[in-house]
């Protein structure tokens, strides 16, 4: 047999063996080198080196189900045939494969059609001026204050510039949305470490957990307030929650102190909010530790060494509090507002609701294109959650079409015209959660919902051409 034919025969035998192998989800979770997509299991360790978007994105999904991650980050169907060389087995028949959302893929095709030809959805040339201006502003402010001493005004300004770098540069970079060149996204992703955060922890918290499990009562880290706030009906009520509308805004200014201190512990334990980071992403560990130490040395130790005073310490805190407030404020209002959905047992949406519905009904938009320029498009949170690897410059353009299609699907699309109206909706939501639950609230749990409401929901599901996921959603909602 010629060598090539022998190799082919070997390859076919390997493929047959792979077809016979079957993995439970637990078995995949215990091994960081595998990943699940649909009903198939792939060798993530081998594939990551060939991943056109960069090895680290695939590494983070080692040991996890990447079906929805692929769908939302590539806006198209899984290339099963092309991936057959990494196929190692099937999901065990006892496991339910994650469904692909066909309605979402149709929406992706329409949205792709709206993008400028050849842009691939990456940043347009004009964006790089904004990015450069922000980086120069941060370096100038920090350098000036190191040489001349800190002032409160410039420190607050630096906090704002840090927040805008977070929103306009690191955020898109770490979603792979800035450039078609993975190295550019990877390097600019480290701007998160520059402003005091941590890239790998952010990827775990935001890309792996928050985006795929938005407002999930158990799995969204942004919904875990550790008793400080009551954000959803499933959270236990504690006496201080009656004041949560009062302390939420000062709390947002203090939030970054938790990140600055506890980040280090999470990094050492290689996890976020109890969810282990895949061992496949271990090469990101050493750079993360170095960057963390470098930030503390550059931003805290150096200024205090050059100008040791309480004033210097206060100015450092002013930068941290300003950046913290700005970022937390805008993230918080986009997922906590009157009528927002929560996902999971006893939430208003079942986990088996479509990907589109789970993303859209847990997020809200505010303002328009000018706020999008300032805030890296994160005021278009719905479009961002649907298409995180689309550069923010395109959100305002695609929003009208997205809204039309979402409403046609029968889902709720929340867009607040002003920041004030969004803030009001957030306060109203917090106010409702602040009230001590009564036995009547328990009666209002899904299992006690009125039959009229049941019929309305069922009618809406039928109107959009009822699918299994709608039925599952209804069953879950009924409790
Ligand atoms: C989570 C963040 C991710 C980002 C930012 C990302 C980025 C990219 C980019 C830039 C490309 C090349 C351009 C394109 O084909 O669209 C690509 C291709 C691809 N990615 Fe990812 N990716 C991510 C996650 C994943 C995951 C978790 C998997 C699967 C385990 C995956 C599988 C693939 C495959 C199979 C291709 C080739 C697609 C094809 O040829 O049709 N990606 N990715």
UniProtKB/TrEMBL annotation:
Coiled-coil ranges per UniProt: none
EC number annotated for this UniProt entry: 1.14.19.31
Reactions that this protein is recorded to catalyse: a (7Z,10Z,13Z,16Z,19Z)-docosapentaenoyl-containing glycerolipid + 2 Fe(II)-[cytochrome b5] + O2 + 2 H(+) = a (4Z,7Z,10Z,13Z,16Z,19Z)-docosahexaenoyl-containing glycerolipid + 2 Fe(III)-[cytochrome b5] + 2 H2O; a (7Z,10Z,13Z,16Z)-docosatetraenoyl-containing glycerolipid + 2 Fe(II)-[cytochrome b5] + O2 + 2 H(+) = a (4Z,7Z,10Z,13Z,16Z)-docosapentaenoyl-containing glycerolipid + 2 Fe(III)-[cytochrome b5] + 2 H2O
Keyword Heme: yes
Pfam families noted in UniProt: Cyt-b5, FA_desaturase
InterPro entries tied to this protein: Cyt_B5-like_heme/steroid-bd, Cyt_B5-like_heme/steroid_sf, FA_desaturase_dom, Fatty_acid_desaturase
Co-factor(s): Fe(2+)
Record's subcellular location: Membrane
Transmembrane segments: 127-146, 152-170, 313-333
PANTHER family, per database record: FATTY ACID DESATURASE 2, FATTY ACID DESATURASE, PUTATIVE-RELATED
Protein name from the UniProt record: Acyl-lipid (7-3)-desaturase
Originating organism: Diacronema viridis
């Amino acid at each position: 047999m010629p060598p090539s034919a022998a190799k082919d025969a070997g390859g076919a035998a390997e493929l047959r063996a792979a077809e016979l192998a079957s993995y439970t989800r637990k078995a995949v979770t215990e091994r960081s080198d595998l990943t699940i997509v649909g009903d198939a299991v792939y060798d993530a360790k081998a594939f990551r080196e060939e991943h056109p978007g960069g090895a680290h994105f695939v590494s983070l999904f080692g040991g996890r189900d990447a079906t929805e991650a692929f769908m939302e980050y590539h806006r198209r169907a899984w290339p099963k045939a092309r991936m057959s060389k990494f196929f190692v087995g099937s999901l065990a028949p006892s496991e339910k494969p994650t469904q692909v959302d066909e309605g979402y893929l149709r929406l992706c095709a329409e949205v792709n059609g709206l993008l400028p030809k050849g842009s691939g959805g990456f940043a347009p040339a004009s964006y790089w001026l904004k990015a450069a201006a922000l980086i120069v502003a941060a370096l100038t402010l920090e350098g000036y204050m190191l040489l001349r001493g800190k002032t409160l005004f410039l420190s607050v300004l630096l906090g704002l510039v840090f927040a805008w770098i977070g929103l306009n540069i690191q955020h898109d970079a770490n979603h792979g949305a800035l450039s078609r060149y993975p190295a550019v996204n990877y390097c600019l992703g480290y701007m998160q470490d520059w402003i005091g955060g941590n890239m790998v922890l952010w990827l775990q918290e935001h890309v792996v957990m928050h985006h795929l499990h938005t407002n999930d009562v158990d799995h969204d880290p942004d919904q875990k307030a550790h008793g400080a706030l009551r954000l959803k009906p499933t959270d236990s009520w504690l006496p201080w929650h009656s004041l949560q509308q009062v302390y939420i805004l000062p709390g947002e200014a203090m939030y970054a102190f938790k990140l600055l201190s506890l980040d280090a512990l999470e990094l050492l334990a290689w996890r976020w909010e109890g969810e282990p980071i895949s061992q496949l992403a271990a090469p990101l560990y050493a750079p993360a530790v170095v960057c963390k130490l470098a930030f503390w040395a550059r931003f805290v130790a150096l200024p205090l060494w050059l100008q040791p005073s309480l004033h210097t310490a206060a100015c450092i805190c002013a930068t941290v509090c300003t950046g913290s407030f700005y970022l937390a404020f805008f993230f918080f209002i986009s997922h906590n507002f009157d009528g927002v959905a929560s996902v999971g047992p006893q939430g208003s949406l079942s986990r088996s609701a479509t990907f589109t519905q789970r993303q859209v009904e847990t997020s809200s938009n505010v303002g328009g294109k000018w706020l999008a320029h300032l805030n890296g498009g994160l005021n278009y949170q719905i479009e961002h959650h649907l298409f995180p690897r689309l550069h923010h410059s395109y959100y305002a353009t695609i929003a009208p079409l997205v809204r039309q299609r979402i409403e046609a699907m029968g889902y709720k699309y929340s867009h607040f015209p002003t920041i004030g109206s969004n803030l009001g909706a957030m306060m109203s939501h917090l106010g409702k959660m602040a009230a001590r639950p009564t036995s009547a609230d328990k009666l209002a749990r899904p299992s006690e919902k009125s039959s009229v409401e049941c019929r309305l929901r069922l009618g809406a599901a039928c109107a959009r051409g009822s699918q299994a996921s709608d039925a599952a959603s209804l069953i879950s909602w009924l409790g």
